Amino acid sequence: MSRDHVHPDQRSAAAAGAPLSSVETPFLELLARGASADAYEQPALLARAEGRATEQIVALEQAKLLALRVRSELEGRRRREAELSALFETAHDLAGLRDLDAVLQAIVQRARSLLGTDVAYLSLNDPARGDTYMRVTEGSVAARFQQLRLGMGEGLGGLVAQTARPYVTDDYFKDDRFQHTLTIDAGVRDEGLVAILGVPLMLGHHVIGVLFAADRRARVFEREQIALLGSFAALAAAAIDTANLLTETRSALADLERANEIIRDRSGVIERASDVHDRLAQLVLHGGGVHDVAAAVSQVLDGAVEFTEVTATPAEALEASRAEGHAVRHADDWIAAVVAGGELLGALVLRGQPGLDPVDQRTLERAATVTSLLLLARRSAAEAEQRVRGELLDDLLDARDRDPRLLRERAARLNADLDATHVVLAARLDAAAADADQEAAARRRLWSAASHLAATRHGLAAARDGGTVLLLPLASGDTATAVARRAARHLGTAVHEAVSVGASAPVEDLAARPDTVAAAYEESRRCLDALRLLGRSGDGAAAEDFGFLGLLLAGDRDIAGFVDRTIGQLVAYDERRGTDLLHTLDAYFACGMSPARTKDELHVHVNTVAQRLERVGRLLGADWQSPARVLEIQLALRLHRLSAPTQR
């Protein structure tokens, strides 16, 4: 019995009606002893011959298909192991390169063995003659074939050498894709080749030759075989490149004089690098800025160097510079990322010098490092000043230090004047953060923007109650409302989110009466809450903007100010002209805003009532009878009567 036949025990197990789970057993035995593919048909054929149940035959067929898949996978793995082993051995030979011809011979031998071809050979390009010639052959028997030279584009090999692409044919003489010549066809016919596969030998983007595998019969080369030959071609190219490098090294040793000349040429560049090092050190010691560094490097490199923000720098080049830690070329410019702790702070850009010397490139990179240190120092100083400003404002809000002299001295060191008129602002972000970390980051951005605003306006800022509080001086002719709205716009632009700002009424004598700051802060918070309730997100307002509601929001309940803002022009007109507009307006409202009933109440002609109401409209504005204005005017009239009961 041959090894591919089914074992008698298998027949007995099948005849006995073994359970369905045992149908795999004969196939496992076939897999174990490496049987041929034909042997896997035997268990199902035997089951049919014995008349076994259809379900068992189906199960055997399914098990057969699975076993054949396993067999194919095992064969594929064994083949890949052999290929990897051959590649490893070839790479090992390359690592110990002593004889280029021996290494190339080993490559074609292993390629022929693994691909199972009759012949394998390798050709190299001859740049001087513009063709490619046979360098190494394995399995060749024809002398004319071994001495072939192929012009670029001629035959299969010439086409591979010309196009840098692999080509394969299962029958060379019937394939009209190639330029057939008498010389090439004669050599191929002498060798008896039919199926040919050729892959390029590449060094970078240049073809230096072609590696071939060929059969003396028609066959189809699989994709895996083409890839394997490509791997051997890469090793052959590396071997050739290594040999060339050894030759170049020997040549370089003979050119020491030229190397000395190059060193002398570079001495000027090194002196420039030393010069910029000294200049940068002096800049740091004397408190120079970022633009001073750029100016110094511009002089040394004899070009225009500038510091650019992250948003104004080409993103791809900037990211490449950060990732590589070196300056990178972008068009005709060089870009060196300014980085601190992984954070991009900007870049130093050298304009219009594409051919930058490596030493000068390093100079630009060192300047970028110095720039990052200066930016970090400036940021640290700014943060320290922000903390000091916040501490002073916290003391004013909490009334911790009531000594006016000490308060003035602390403010003066921060370029703030507590004797000037100020406005207290309460600012908060309107959008809700997705989580606690994002909310904390958003608050830090708001505090940083508020601190910067306070520093530039000679004021103070501090983080408080989930937002920020600012104390800003009020310029002559300015209003609390205008300050609040400008602050809302400025802060919203800085943090890229909507920021609402409530403002207090102007406050004075902060050093002598620090408790007024706390009261003004509470008033600004009430205005801020009112803005949110009214849906005015991202806006700024003071108590005076809310009409009679401002009486409830204001800390000092400025009744006289409300009356003056609302009906002050009527009061002044009556006092100057001796008219009775206030009394007429009182009667008009009491009579349900009916001119006919009003004239009866006042005992005057209806035209007189109309004339007086027209005068009121000119003094108070065309919208004085709108519901909102009517409510405020009636409240102001009542408050005016209460404050001056003897007047009509």
TrEMBL record:
What the entry lists under InterPro entries is as follows: CdaR-like_regulators, CdaR_GGDEF, GAF, GAF-like_dom_sf, PucR_C-HTH_dom, PucR_C-HTH_sf
UniProt signal peptide: none
Pfam families, sorted: GAF, GGDEF_2, HTH_30
Read off the SMART domains from this record.
Answer: GAF (SM00065)
Domain of life, source organism = Bacteria
Ranges of residues in domain GAF: 99-250
What does the sequence similarity comment in the record state about its family? Belongs to the CdaR family.
Q: Any idea what this protein is called?
A: Helix-turn-helix domain-containing protein
